[in-house]
């Protein structure tokens, strides 16, 4: 299975020695997601601070569990992967843990030796650049079967 950042193999805990997604990209994605949550809160909940936090949390949980990335992540070319397998989306349990820790803010600000925030460490996830793939990882690479140029007549 291709690695999210290099396409060469699955990312494993030993492979993650520095964050693949630089802090600037992660902060930019966070700002985009917060602005979207704020706009929704302003439009439907009179911009109440707890409503903004709830919208941000719900949006983050749902998008990470189903797609592996929030809107901000996608705009900055990021995706959240399972640490054990290097796959995305991460699923509802890991998304819930990661989102709950993200809302606490302290685990996000504290990074481990591998560069991941505590919210990623506790959820068993990591964030990295999104590698767009032309074919799924299980599909064979090489020329696709089909009519050759000489058989088209």
From TrEMBL:
Q: Which residues form a coiled coil?
A: none
Q: Which superkingdom does the taxonomy of this entry point to?
A: Bacteria
- Main localization of the protein described in the UniProt heading: membrane
- Region entry Disordered, spans: 133-153
Q: Which InterPro entries match?
A: Pra-immunoreactive, RDD
The transmembrane segments are 53-76
The name this protein carries in UniProt is: RDD family protein
**Source organism of the structure:** Salana multivorans
């Amino acid at each position: 299975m291709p690695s999210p950042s290099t396409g060469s193999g699955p990312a494993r805990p030993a492979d993650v020695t520095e964050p693949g997604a630089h802090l600037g990209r992660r902060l930019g994605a966070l700002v985009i997601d917060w602005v979207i949550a704020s706009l929704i809160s302003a439009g439907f909940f009179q911009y109440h601070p707890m409503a903004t936090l709830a919208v941000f949390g719900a949006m983050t949980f749902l998008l990470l569990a189903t797609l592996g990335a929030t809107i901000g992540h996608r705009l900055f070319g990021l995706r959240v992967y399972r640490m054990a397998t290097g796959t995305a989306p991460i699923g509802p349990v890991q998304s819930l843990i990661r989102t709950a820790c993200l809302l606490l803010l302290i685990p996000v600000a504290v990074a481990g030796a591998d560069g991941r925030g505590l919210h990623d460490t506790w959820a068993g996830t990591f964030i990295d650049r999104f590698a767009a793939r032309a074919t799924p990882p299980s599909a064979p690479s090489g020329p696709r079967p089909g009519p050759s140029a000489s058989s088209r007549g």
